[in-house]
UniProtKB/TrEMBL annotation:
InterPro entries: COX7a, Cyt_c_oxidase_su7a_sf, Cytc_oxidase_su7a_met. Pathway: Energy metabolism; oxidative phosphorylation. Keywords: Acetylation, Membrane, Mitochondrion, Mitochondrion inner membrane, Oxidoreductase, Transmembrane, Transmembrane helix. This is Cytochrome c oxidase subunit 7A2, mitochondrial. It comes from Ilyodon furcidens. Pfam families: COX7a (PF02238). It is found in: Mitochondrion inner membrane. SUPFAM superfamilies: Mitochondrial cytochrome c oxidase subunit VIIa (SSF81419). CDD domains: Cyt_c_Oxidase_VIIa. It is a single-pass membrane protein. Belongs to the cytochrome c oxidase VIIa family. The keyword Oxidoreductase applies. The chain crosses the membrane at residues 53-71. It comes from the Eukaryota.
Length: 83
């Protein structure tokens, strides 16, 4: 029983992937330093051009959504006349 538990633990530690393991650099300290430096930039834009693109896309979709909602509310508040 004990031998079976050790085998299961080794399999769990090894993982399911059969490809060769590769070392991944720990980039967390560098990211923390980048996001914590005081350079006057908002934190949601400190990630670079990808963050800026995502921010602008989100703002554009928000403005379009609000505009469309107001249009539909205006359209619903004035019912069509029946001919």
């Amino acid at each position: 029983m004990f031998r079976h538990m050790i085998a299961v633990q080794q399999m769990a530690r090894r993982g399911i992937c059969s490809s060769a393991r590769r070392q991944v650099d720990n980039k967390v300290p560098q990211k923390q330093k980048m996001f914590q430096e005081d350079n006057g930039m908002p934190v949601h834009l400190k990630g670079g051009s990808t963050d800026a693109l995502l921010y602008r896309a989100t703002m554009a979709l928000t403005v379009l959504g609000v505009g469309y909602t107001l249009y539909e509310l205006g359209k619903a508040s004035f019912p069509r006349k029946k001919d």
